[in-house]
Every structure is written in C-alpha cells, then in structure tokens.
Amino acid sequence: MELTDRQKQILRAIVDIYVSTAEPVGSKAIAALPDMKFSSATIRNEMADLTQMGLLEQPHTSAGRIPSPAGYRLYIDELMQDYRLSLDETRSLNEALELKSQEFDKMMSQVGKLVSKMTNLPAYTVATRQSEAVARHFDLIMTAPGSIILVLMLSGDVVKNKLVKLPVQVTEPELKLLAAVLNASLTDLTAEEITGELLDKITRSAGAAAPLVPLVVDFTLECLRQQHGDVHLTGQMRLLGQPEYRDAAEKAQEVFETLDEEMISNLPAVLPKEGPVQFLVGPENVAKELKDTSVVMMRFDIGDGMQGTIGVVGPTRMDYAKITAKLGYFAENLGRMFQKSNPAMPPALSDGESNP
Amino acid sequence: MELTDRQKQILRAIVDIYVSTAEPVGSKAIAALPDMKFSSATIRNEMADLTQMGLLEQPHTSAGRIPSPAGYRLYIDELMQDYRLSLDETRSLNEALELKSQEFDKMMSQVGKLVSKMTNLPAYTVATRQSEAVARHFDLIMTAPGSIILVLMLSGDVVKNKLVKLPVQVTEPELKLLAAVLNASLTDLTAEEITGELLDKITRSAGAAAPLVPLVVDFTLECLRQQHGDVHLTGQMRLLGQPEYRDAAEKAQEVFETLDEEMISNLPAVLPKEGPVQFLVGPENVAKELKDTSVVMMRFDIGDGMQGTIGVVGPTRMDYAKITAKLGYFAENLGRMFQKSNPAMPPALSDGESNP
DNA sequence: ATTAGCACTCAGAAAGAAAGAGTGCTAAGC
DNA sequence: GCTTAGCACTCTTTCTTTCTGAGTGCTAAT
Is the model's pTM score more than 0.85? Predict the structure, then answer.
C-alpha cells in the first residue's frame, strides 16, 4: 500500500518534529507548519490512517503521535532529506579533524571521541580487515637479558608488539639471525599459508633461538587471524543527555551492558542492507535491551586492506539526517587522511574568507 | 578533641551501615547491633555530640545520621578495619587476573576494565614515569614507497610507533643506515641530553635520509617527554548503579565531564597524603562537581622506571574498606606480574583448601 | 551515667482534584 | 466527495491535601 504525497509529507513532518522535541506530535502542531495546507482535522484523519498502517504510534489516547520503528525505517529509506551542515558545523568539524597523527589505534580512539563529542552521543570506531592479513616485518629487540620485545608489522600499517619472556638464554646475534629468518620466510604469507613444514624449516634455520619460534609464530598467527581491531567505544554517558534516558539510568546501563565490544564488532552481521551508511533502528536490533536504541554506522576507507567503521548510538528517536551528514563528513575526510597517509590534513579551507 | 572509644565505635558502625544501605542510620539500628551495649537513647546523645563535632550530618530533623566528609576521612584514617576478601572473591579476582599478556597499553586498559567489573564502579588506570625516559631502540620499516613506520622502543618496555609520510624518496639501505645511526647515537639519552649539536652530527651521518631526521627526533622527544601514559577510563556507566546517581543522571554526567583524562592524570597532585593507597573524599576534590564523589587510588610497580596507578571512582558513600582490599590485591599481583614480565601468572593458589 | 517514655518534626507515600492537550466523530461547507 | 469546524470525551500530568511512620530531643526516673 503506497503512501500518498500528503501522507509522506505528514510522516516526514512528524519524524522531524519528534526527533527534535522528543514529545508526541499533535495534529495542531503539524497544521501550523508553514507549508502545510490542510486543517488539523484533515491531518488527524491522515494520522489515524498512518497509525492504522503501523507507521505511527500513540503513547495513549489523548496524546499526539510518535513514529513507530517502521515509520522511522520508511523515513530513513525514502523520506529523509539531506541535512546540510551549517558553516559553523563544518568549521568545528574541521577543527576537530586536526588530529595529531600518531599510532593507528590511538587515532581510531581519538576519532571516536571526536564523533561522540560532535554528535553528543555515544560513538564507537573499529577497524576491520577487508583482505587477508599478512605479516610485513618482524623485529626482535632485547630489552633486558631474558626478555625481548617482538614487534610485528602487518599489512594495513598495523603494528603489534609483545613483551616476551625468553625460555632460554639468547645472544643479540642469535636474535638478529632469527629476525632475519622470520623476515625472509614468514612475510607476505596469510595465516593459511603458514604451514607446519615451513615452521620446521624456520626452526631448523633459527639456530640457538629455535625455542623462540613457537612463541613468535603463535603471536603472529593470532594477529593475522584477528578480523577486527580494537573496538573503541566512548561517550557512553552522553546517552544520558537524551530525554528518554534522563530518568532511566537503568535502561542506559542495560544498553551498554548489552552493547559491549563483542556485540559491536558483530553489528555489521545483522545489517538489513548494504551501503556506506547503515541504520539499525530500534527493534531491528536483536537484543531486546536495545529495542529503543538505534545505531548509525558509516564506513570509511583506510587503505591497504583495512576499512574503518564509525558508529553512533542513540535513542530510536535520533536525528538520523543530521547524524548521517556529520558521519559522512567525517568518513570522507578520514578516508582522505588515511589514504594519503600522514601528514593528516583536513580539507583545505581557509577558515575565514580567502584573499583574492 | 579526642573521641572516646564508644564514639569511635558508633561512628564506625554508622559508616559501615550507611555504606551498605545508603540510608541514613538511626539510633535504633545502631543499638540493635550485637556488640553494642547501650540503649538507643545513649546512642542518640552520642550521635548528637558527633554531629556537633562535624563528623555526622542529618539530612533533616527526623532522619537518621549520615557520615560527613570529615567523618569519612576519620573513618579511613583511623577506624577502617581491614576487609578480608572472601574465598569466593579471591577466586574471582584470580580468574580475572588471567590476562592475556599483550601490548602494554592493552594490558593497562584490560586491568581497568577488570577492576571496574570487580568493584562495580568506574575505574581508571594510568602508567606514570618515575625516572627520566630514554630511547632503547629505533626501527624504520618501509611499508610502501614513500611511507615508513617508525617504531620506537623506550625504557619501561613501552613501544610507540608512527606512520611517517616521507618528504623525500629513500631506499631501503639508506633507511637501514639511518636506523643504525639513530641506534648508535640516540639511545639511552634523556630528552635533555639530546642536543642540537648531536642532531647535527646525526644529520650529517644520515646521508640521503637526512630529511627524515627531524621527523624522527621530534617524535622521539615527544615520547620521551610524556610523563603519563594514556589514561584508560572505563565503566563510567556503573556509577549509575549507585543509588545516589540512580535518578540523577545529570550529576553522573557532570562527574565525568569534570573528571576527564586530563584531570585524572593530575589527580596525584592534589592528594592529601603519600602512600600506596590514597583517598580523595568528596569535597577534598577541588572541583565542585565532584563534591559527592570519592576516588580511591592504588599504586603498583611496573619496573623499569614506570609505575602504575589504578583508581576507582564512586560516591562519597563507598565501601572504602572493600575497595581498598580489592585494589590492594590487584596491585600486589599486577606488580608481581609486570616485574617478572611475561608470562603473566596470578599467584599460585590451589583454588580450594590447601592440604596440610 | 544510663535509660524509658513521650511529644514533636518532617519527608515521603497515597489519594483526590483540577487542568489541558489531543483525539475521534459528526455534521456542515466548498 | 474531500475538507473542515465544532464538541464531547479520554487520559496524562500536575498540584494539593492528607496520612503515616521513622527518628529525634528532651525530661524524668533508675
């Protein structure tokens, strides 16, 4: 059953208003809108129809209407109008984007904090591997007699390190030898390509440092098999700024007990559609604790087989258009930053007028 | 004015009860305590005195008493009795302590999560340098033509890395040369010992890779000068589990707006006393937003010039004894783990009764 | 010095009353 | 036949009022 233009217009108006007020919207408020040419009575009739269709809900008889999850979904898929960032908003986004370029993980975490701040909602970031990971470089550095640090560089410019306590005494040259062997034989291989045979060969070539091989290899395999980087979730408290959680601290707590890091990294699996922006609206989340919670996700390109995801968590009544616009801006610029690698530069924009 | 034994006993009882019930404590409840040999009337008199002295407060005339900040302070300093961890508690702490040994930062963050979970309160961890940092090892790894990763190992087994976009074309051997030069001349020096002269010398020796030198050195100096590692703050939401914040989401939000990472790393500066455990009780926090919030901090040894701090954030009415006991257990075992380096092992403890 | 007894206070719960926003329906208008 | 004005009705919200009970502080007795 197709909606008439008028119905669409009304539904859109209801979502728009409800999103910003968090109060049920009455027919009068709609009728008062500048480009609404009908009386409140007509609108009441249409609202009754939309409720019938399951796109609106009524908290109680004498209240206005609020969008149902289906209503939000329709709004997102068809009705939502691009939100244009104001100059002020663009400017503060740009300022924020001046991240210090640093370790990858720290950057991701900083991006999360930024997004959370700019949207005033909890946000997360994850990096996900697109292609099979391979090791690019091994390094073994002795820190004290008996302990070394293993530095492992993977595709995607990911650097991992681990402090290893040595099972045997090893000298510097022996360590160098092992590193050379590892770099010669274990780089550019995916986890599957690292066979037992190969390991035997490496162990034989490793000389005195042979007992170290399994330690190094296990760590390497573990790293190679990791599909996701760390999940950086921040700004949880900002959920409390939303009226629906203001006096429902318990609910807010539940949300983040459910939406832990594991769940977040599995989110893409339950997505209804593909695309760079994705929405999980209220009950589309499987967990019942999240039935009033929505997530907006945006992908961005990191390059070298990695992909980043930024997500924003909020009440079902959230400003999808605005959040999408802001996330989009982030994604675009982050993609650019990461691809060009450092130095990180937000798009050139002389932050006043530019001279002729 | 010294307290009588009976007054001490009553004050201690009030804190103990209030801490666990979060309700004002009446004279009757105290009198009902097994080892309380006096009638409620007597206790009422003593309570009036204690109130006079500023150690107790009365939310309103017809309510019981609650400890004042000064009361808590006295309790902490003199009255608090060691909380004995139950076998169950020890066991779950031990289970929790089986951290996967991994990157330092990740471990610290995991410790924070753990402490937060075990105390059911927000927690943070920081690593602080005790002695001057020096670089231990440099590594330059080419990831793609035009970009390299700089891996820097510092004292304290801290590994930093940074993706560097090259200003000039450099070949592998040139990179190797630079790394060798850096390792030869820049290691084991504190930030102050790295002089302009020295840098000139390095630049001259660096050959084609000379333009890279300032990039590397700047990053190195930045790392060396960092007094604190990252602050890992987690479990903020758990503050909402506390009755005083249950219906005061706003207050909880304020707490963490104020208690940001910067403030946390400066906390030690405002401490009233020295020692491995430290308490910041309610209004002893300078920020007025934190006047109902306490922090318990515990130091632990990491070795190699580094020191860790675990902190727990809670309402002023928090179970100082229990938290202290748990933190102490963590600190002790973490200290042991970090010093021995990996593999991380919680103390051997046959998790039942030990045989004679 | 301690305690029983009692009048008094005051927050919080429960119950009732009033206000107001918004609906659905009916009947009139274009 | 679609649209709209009018109106009775519903139901939340808010404000009062009343009631209850825990707890105190004081006085007088032990």
Answer: yes
